[in-house]
Write a structure and sequence with these properties.
Layout (H helix, E strand, L loop, with lengths): L1 E2 L7 H16 L4 E5 L5 H12 L5 H8 L1 H16 L4 E4 L7 E2 L8 E3 L3 H8 L4 E5 L2 E3 L5 E3 L5 H11 L5 E5 L20 E3 H9 L7 H9 L4 E5 L10 E4 L12 E17 L4 H11 L7 E3 L6 E9 L3 H16 L3 E14 L9 H11 L6 E5 L2 E7 L3 H11 L7
Helix pairs in contact: 1-4, 2-3, 6-8, 7-8, 9-10, 11-12
This protein binds adenosine-5'-diphosphate, aspartic acid and magnesium ion (MG).
Adenosine-5'-diphosphate binds next to loops.
Length: 406
């Protein structure tokens, strides 16, 4: 059972979450509870790090930013003890949840189960584990990237071969789009791993992308549900294999991401090797390039456009400035940070044509200009002016009639 930030935001909510855990214990289950930091806490900690040291040491960033989860893990264990449920807390390093050394974006390598299993054997009923954090081979504290407690939860479920992995959050499941953006968003009873993976990676933050990957790989029975409502055993949304979904719309959902920047290299030489040079330099600088477009070429020159997360713009600019001197030789780099990405996702696209045409027509009807397009087998993404983001999400939701079940 994983409880997100809003579900442990106050002592009262921790008590409410603990009661839900108590219900499962009463049914005879041993429970591993993964907790996030109280809502807002991680943002505050990230802010403090940036204020103290703009070009911070990532190892110390992790030491600070991981601490919010230590507080809620201890408080959850204490709350359970007050309810006479035998419980204790673990920080990541105590498990030890071993990760790579990629600070602030570490990947889980190993979760030994002996330590916690031994306590269950002694009569402990609930192991409360601080989410989001682990320890590197160098013995330093690491974090798994924002939203990483979801991944902690799925990884524990896989390691302990849990019956279920329930993600308790502030919405009662996965919706056709963010219910905070579209009032017509509809809760899905089931969604396929592949669709959830795309939605998450395209911005739907209800689950961290990596958690969906792990659930798919280890066949974890993954469910998203509300910590604010009384829940039956089939409440929320089940994230499951494609075969387990009887009927679905061609488009399953709409996702958005505000955190995009459009970068244009103006007038680069149009000859073999240029794209390789540009994108190698960006990759070496750790820039995550998403969309790429090469524009019309005139007189042997072309414009190259790519998108990357807004917080990587400075890094991309530095990498391009450095590379410009030797081979690439562009006239100008224009960074447009007032853009957003809106995507439609659905496994039905594999077998249905016309989704792109419908999407572009819908945006055109709203007078929204498309700046960049990318597609894959089960998604279409466009980059648009950020001020139209909500409008685009709502219009696409209407156009694909996502408020109605298949
Ligand atoms: P937690 O703190 O519990 O981890 P998050 O804020 O990380 O919660 O994720 C839940 C939020 O995800 C919801 O409040 C909702 O605004 C947002 N969200 C975005 N897309 C979707 C979607 N398709 N379905 C449900 N929630 C979504
Ligand atoms: N507290 C961390 C964050 O806000 C991890 C999580 O909540 O999943 O990103
Ligand atoms: Mg989250």
């Amino acid at each position: 059972m994983k409880f997100g930030g809003t579900s442990v935001a106050t002592l009262d909510r921790i008590r409410r979450a603990a009661k839900r855990v108590g219900v499962e214990v009463a049914k005879g289950h041993d429970v591993i509870v993964i907790v996030s930091a109280m809502s807002g806490k991680t943002n505050e900690l990230v802010g403090w790090v940036g204020e103290t040291s703009p070009l911070y040491d990532a190892r110390e960033y992790d030491a600070v930013v991981s601490s919010g989860e230590n507080v809620t893990a201890g408080l959850m264990a204490l709350t359970l003890q007050e309810m006479d449920v035998p419980a204790r807390s673990w920080q990541g390093w105590q498990v030890p949840l071993r990760t790579t050394s990629a600070h602030s974006a570490a990947r889980i390598e190993e979760i030994p189960t002996d330590n916690i299993s031994a306590k269950f054997a002694e009569g402990m009923k609930v192991a409360v584990v601080a989410g989001f954090q682990g320890v590197s081979a160098e013995g330093r504290i690491t974090t798994l990237g924002r939203g990483g407690s979801d991944t902690t939860a799925v990884a524990f479920a896989a390691a302990f071969e849990a019956e279920r992995c329930d993600i308790y959050t502030d919405v009662d499941g996965v919706y056709t789009t963010d219910p905070r953006v579209s009032p017509k968003a509809r809760k899905l009873d089931r969604i396929a791993f592949e669709e959830m993976l795309e939605l998450a990676s395209l911005g739907a933050k209800v689950l961290q992308t990596r958690s969906v990957e792990l659930a798919m790989r280890y066949s974890v029975r993954l469910r998203v549900l509300s910590s604010f409502e009384e829940q039956s055993d089939d409440a929320g949304t089940l994230v499951c294999a494609e075969e387990d979904i009887v009927e679905s719309n061609v488009v399953a959902g709409v996702a958005y991401s505000r955190d995009e920047a459009k970068m244009t290299l103006v007038s680069v030489a149009d000859r073999p090797g240029i794209a390789a040079t540009i994108f190698s330099a960006l990759s070496d600088a750790g820039v995550n390039v998403d969309m790429i477009v090469q524009n019309i070429s005139e007189e042997g020159r072309t414009d190259m456009t790519f998108s990357c997360p807004t917080d990587q713009v400075a890094r991309a600019e530095a990498a391009m400035a450095e590379a410009n001197g030797n081979i690439i030789n562009f006239a100008e780099l224009i960074a447009d940070t007032d853009v957003a990405k809106v995507s439609v996702v659905g496994i039905g696209m594999r077998s249905h044509t016309g989704v792109a045409a419908k999407m572009f027509q819908c945006l055109s009807n709203e007078g929204i200009n498309i700046k960049v397009i990318t597609t894959s087998e089960i998604k279409i993404s466009v980059l648009i002016d950020r001020k139209y983001m909500e409008l685009a999400v709502q219009a696409l939701h209407d156009a694909f009639e996502l408020d109605k079940a298949a």
